[in-house]
Write a structure and sequence with these properties.
The complex is a heterodimer of chains A (645) and B (313).
Chain A (H helix, E strand, L loop, with lengths): L4 H15 L8 H19 L7 H19 L5 H17 L4 H17 L7 H23 L5 H24 L39 E6 L11 E7 L1 E2 L4 E2 L19 E7 L6 E2 L1 E2 L9 E3 L5 E3 L7 E7 L22 H12 L4 H14 L3 E2 L10 H9 L1 E2 L1 H14 L4 E8 L2 E3 L4 E5 L3 E9 L2 E5 L1 H5 L2 H5 L15 H29 L3 H10 L7 H27 L5 H17 L11 H11 L1 H20 L4 H12 L4
Parallel strand pairs in A: 11-12
Antiparallel strand pairs in A: 1-5, 1-15, 2-7, 2-13, 3-4, 5-10, 6-9, 8-9, 13-16, 14-15, 16-17
Helix pairs in contact in A: 1-2, 1-5, 1-6, 2-4, 3-4, 4-5, 5-6, 6-7, 7-16, 8-11, 9-11, 10-11, 17-19, 17-20, 18-19, 19-20
Chain B lengths: L1 H12 L5 E2 L6 E4 L1 H20 L2 H25 L3 E7 L2 E2 L3 E9 L5 E8 L2 E7 L4 E9 L4 E4 L2 E6 L6 E8 L3 E5 L10 H4 L5 H4 L7 E7 L11 H4 L6 E6 L5 E5 L8 H17 L3 E6 L2 E6 L2 H12 L6
Parallel strand pairs in B: 4-12, 15-16
Antiparallel strand pairs in B: 1-3, 2-11, 3-5, 5-8, 6-7, 6-10, 9-12, 10-11, 13-14, 16-17
Helix pairs in contact in B: 2-3, 7-8
The chains are: A alpha+beta (645), B alpha+beta (313).
């Protein structure tokens, strides 16, 4: 059977499609070996190259194993496994002789497709995986169909896949998910995904603001709150060393206050992209900590573990700040010296008897009226950065403003803290959710006034549009040349597709990749199933069984339906014609062909001869020549059977 | 007990012709490859659970669903197939008997159906509503009636994970002629009866050509006068002027061969040779006389009688 070269090359083609996404992951020598082995296997089929002797195959197999062990050493994980699998694919192809060997190759191909999920689960890659499953299935069909053409087998492979989808989705939804792994999973994810930084160094130049990477997405069941109230708090920085704001005070945990939150509390779902840190960016003042997270005393949320995969959190936030006792002296601590002019200004305020609220107003007044400029290119500063910013350069972005404001207020004895996080976000009209990007990273301050930590965003007075349109309006636009109308329109179209693509990705992430134990439970609850009780489990089983029967029953009915095509229609019509004639004693004899029949009718009933001849000619044309118009035939038949004789 | 169950199963497999394969006759089980694949799937499922990887779950379930559906496809490939007729043509013992099966596809196309009878097997495909004749060569080993035995129609299409099959015991019995002794091994002289001229008669190598007459099916192809037929107006057969020497009767009791089966073989060989030479021949067996005649039907009558001779003592 394997002398059927075509089947072998199609098997190899399916294998290559399944293997292609692995090429970047495997070491070069593995890629070369696999391609060479496949090439040789094809040569064996088409050119009659000799089958490598058994000893050579054994040596090659051992050599491959040794190379993999040498390359990966002791850490035999995902990469080593895939490399070994790839080498097996190469070797197996060379020694494939029978249909069973090809079957084994195609099973391996399925396996290779599934190992892809260890590397990438994006929408594109997933679509490609489905495509390769179809290709491998079609190759399997081709192996068993005995057909020489490929197209019917491709179609059958596609049909199998389409019919299998509902069943697969059913199993996907109802197959019970466990919490956590069966055994330890070695995490190989890369460290240090670039993102927002956990300290604030106003002297360093912004590059973060320009990254369009998605930080997280937020889905509000209700309307999306006003953009200028969207402050996503990440981390509270409590200490300053003259150059950098950072977190120093020990972390205390806070109680959830699930019972008394105000009317304005907003529920939402946050889907955080992995950033390999524990911060979770909640809208200000999350009310409680969802499972797997803790609420800190500064009302920031943190995961109990690093967020190393895309994670979903159901949150409720209350915009009204809560009463807190007077913070300790740590919240007004500053370095011993440095920034003398700023300290003088603060002392003036204090001496003139301004209340904390008035001092905040004074600082904002200073920023608004003092000739300050919002820019993403403030230039680097080395020492006395607050003084330099306030009295010399007067240009900077959120970090400079919040750092300067916090310094002034602390110097005046007002408890204040710097908050870093994100501000705003872009609404995706196609998905009805908010996309928050790395470019939305922001810093602001919270001042303890009237017994509450109240948010003050100094940047907002300098650059109010920063809150409305986002930071992008500050990105320098080339040489200030106005773009022609056409290009602007093109950009709009591009943006439309970009948002649509993000919506598709988001749905994929939410509904497929993010379908967790908790969400499955939620779905079951909505269906009124409680799997912890026996009745609930029975109900679940019944649901599953009913779904199985339904999907398989439909597939069964579809497969067993006979193709009632046009040709059958023709036969039915011809049957009517014959029955009509049989009624007047001119039944067609079993062995009588259409032409003989027509001749006999003409001899016995010359009055019907021409009409019958017309019908039979049309029938012969449709039936045997494959030409003619079925509708016209139908008319002829109706005309004939409508007669009275 | 086992015998009883076998009888029961065989009773179920007994199938009158024409027949249509329905669920009562179709069995389906995973193949060995299917078992291996199931094991593969199980491994994938465990990995998906362990890594709580939803895409792996989805792919595993997709592959699982595909394999379950392939069982339905395999079943559908077989169900509704019609076996319209089955004929087992007579053959000389030791030769292959031709089994002619005629299938109709019914409303669906059929892909790679295998037919197996004993060791003979073949496969075929056909489009929807087509008909197809399949010929199998069935080896024969002894003269007499030969029940066809079990015919198995099976398919592994589309994925090879499941095999659907239908075992059928058809009401078809073939006839196996005795193994004829080759002509060159026969000593024609030894066949002459010593005194009894009428029993065996003399054998002349060719009859005298007497003319043509319309062909009758029992004449056999060797008697067709192609020259006369080529002029149109139907087939004509050569007629030989009957003479003293051209009728021969092979007599069981005249054969001087002691072995029972060998005697049958010899007679079968004589019949075949006589038919080949266009003689008029008859056969006298214990309890049976076949009047002289010639042609296919005469040969068949004689060979059948020989084939059905009781077992020798």
């Amino acid at each position: 059977m394997i002398h059927d070269k075509r089947r072998f090359s199609i098997t190899l083609l399916a294998l290559a499609l399944a293997f292609a996404p692995h090429l970047p992951h495997v070491p070069i020598f593995v890629g070369i070996f696999v391609c060479a082995a496949w090439g040789y296997a094809l040569g064996m089929q088409y050119r009659g190259w000799p089958v490598p002797p058994r000893w050579l195959r054994v040596v090659l197999a051992l050599g491959c194993l040794a190379l993999v062990l040498f390359t990966y050493g002791r850490s035999f994980g995902r990469d080593a496994g895939v490399a070994l699998l790839s080498l097996m694919l190469g070797l197996k192809a060379v020694e494939s002789k029978s249909v069973r060997d090809m079957l084994a190759l195609l099973f391996l191909a399925y396996f290779v497709v599934v190992t892809n999920v260890l590397y990438s689960q994006t929408l594109v890659m997933s679509a490609y995986m489905f495509f390769s499953v179809m290709a491998v299935t079609a190759a399997l069909v081709h192996l068993h169909s005995g057909e020489s053409r490929l197209l019917p087998d491709l179609r059958r492979g596609g049909l199998l896949l389409v019919q299998a989808l509902p069943l697969a989705l059913l199993l996907f939804v109802f197959f019970p998910r466990l919490q956590g792994a069966l055994w330890g999973v070695h995490d190989q994810r890369d460290e240090g995904v670039s993102g927002f930084s956990e300290t604030l160094e106003p002297g360093s130049v912004a590059n973060l603001s320009l990254s369009r990477e998605v930080a997280f997405r937020v889905d509000f069941p209700g309307p999306i709150p006003d953009r200028d109230s969207l402050y996503w708090r990440g981390l509270v920085l409590d200490s300053f060393d003259g150059l950098t704001w950072f977190r120093d005070l020990p972390v205390e945990l806070a109680q959830s206050r699930s019972e008394n939150f105000s009317q304005q509390a907003v529920p939402y779902t946050l889907t955080l992209e992995p950033h390999n840190k524990e911060w979770i960016f909640a809208l200000d003042l999350p009310v409680f900590a969802p499972r797997g997270t803790v609420l800190r005393s500064d009302r920031t949320l943190a995961g109990m573990r690093m967020v190393s995969s895309r994670s979903r959190f159901e949150l409720v936030s209350d915009p009204a700040p809560e009463q807190t006792p007077l913070p300790g002296p740590a919240w007004i601590a500053l370095p011993e010296d440095g920034n003398p002019r700023s300290r003088d200004l603060a002392r003036q305020w204090k001496d003139s008897g301004l209340s904390p609220a008035e001092m905040v107003a004074a600082a904002l007044e200073l920023f608004r009226e003092g000739g300050f400029v919002y820019t993403l290119r403030p230039g680097a500063m080395a020492a006395d950065i607050v003084d330099q910013f306030l009295f010399a350069t007067r240009q900077g972005y959120c970090e400079h403003y919040s750092s300067a404001m916090a310094f002034l207020l602390r110097a005046a004895g007002v408890p204040v803290r710097v908050v870093v996080g994100y501000q705003g976000g872009e609404e995706n009209p196609m998905g009805g959710y908010l996309i928050v990007r790395q470019s939305d990273a922001h810093a602001w301050v919270e001042v303890w006034v009237d017994g509450r930590w109240q948010r003050v965003d100094p940047t907002s007075v300098v650059a109010p549009q920063r809150l409305v349109t986002g930071v992008e309006s500050f990105v320098p636009q080339g040489q200030g040349v106005l773009l022609p109308e056409g290009i602007r329109a093109l950009r709009q179209v591009g943006r439309f597709f970009q948002l649509g693509w993000d919506a598709a990705n988001n749905s994929w992430n939410q509904w497929v990749l993010g379908f967790s134990h908790e969400r499955q439970r939620g779905l079951w609850e909505r269906l009124g199933i409680d799997p912890t009780t026996i009745a609930g489990a029975g109900k679940l089983a019944a649901f599953l069984a009913a779904g199985l029967c339904l999907t398989l029953g439909v597939a069964f009915a579809v497969m067993l339906r006979s193709r009632q095509g046009e040709r059958d229609q023709v036969a039915l019509l011809y049957g009517r014609f014959c029955r009509k004639l049989a009624a007047i004693g001119l039944a067609r004899k079993p062995a009588e062909g259409p032409h003989d029949y027509a001749g006999r009718i003409g001899r016995q009933r010359p009055d019907l001869g021409q009409a019958a001849r017309d019908v039979i000619d049309a029938y012969v044309a449709l039936r045997y020549r494959g030409s003619g118009d079925p509708a016209a035939f139908k008319r002829l038949i109706e005309e004939f059977t409508g007669r009275t004789f | 007990m086992i015998r009883f169950i076998r009888t029961l199963i065989q009773a179920r497999q007994r199938a009158p012709l024409p027949l249509r394969l329905t669920r009562r006759r179709i069995y389906i089980l995973p193949t060995r490859a299917g078992m291996v694949f199931a094991f593969f799937l199980l491994a994938m499922l465990v990995a998906a659970i362990n890594y709580t990887n939803n895409l792996a779950f989805l792919l595993t379930f997709l592959l699982g669903s595909i394999s379950i559906l392939s069982a339905i496809h395999a079943y559908a490939n077989l169900a509704g197939l019609e076996l319209e007729s089955a004929r087992l043509f007579p053959a000389y013992c030791g030769d292959d008997a031709r089994l002619q099966l005629f299938f109709r596809a019914g409303g669906r196309e059929r892909r790679r159906l295998g037919v197996r009878v004993g060791t003979a097997e073949d496969s075929f495909s056909m489009p929807a509503r087509a008909g197809r004749e399949m010929d199998l060569s069935i080896p024969t080993s002894r003269r007499g009636l030969r029940p066809l035995g079990q015919v198995v129609i099976s398919t592994r299409y589309p994925l090879g994970l499941f095999r659907a099959w239908s075992p059928l015991i058809l009401p078809v019995t073939g006839l196996v002629y005795p193994c004829p002794l080759a002509a060159d091994r026969m000593d024609w002289r030894s066949l002459h009866g010593e005194g009894d001229e009428g029993a065996l008669g003399t054998v002349s190598q060719s009859g005298e050509f007497g003319g043509v007459r319309p062909y009758r099916p029992e004449d056999g192809l060797s008697r067709v006068s192609w020259k006369a037929s080529a002029k149109g107006g139907g087939l004509f057969a050569k007629e030989f002027r009957s003479g003293v020497a051209r009728t021969v009767v092979f007599d069981w009791y005249e054969i001087r061969v002691s072995d029972y089966e060998e005697r049958i073989s010899l007679l079968a060989g004589l019949v075949r040779e006589a038919e080949r030479q266009g003689l008029s021949y008859g056969l006298r067996l214990p309890g049976l006389d076949i009047a002289p005649g010639s042609g296919m039907s005469q040969a068949h009558r004689c060979l059948e009688a020989l084939a059905l001779m009781p077992e020798g003592s």
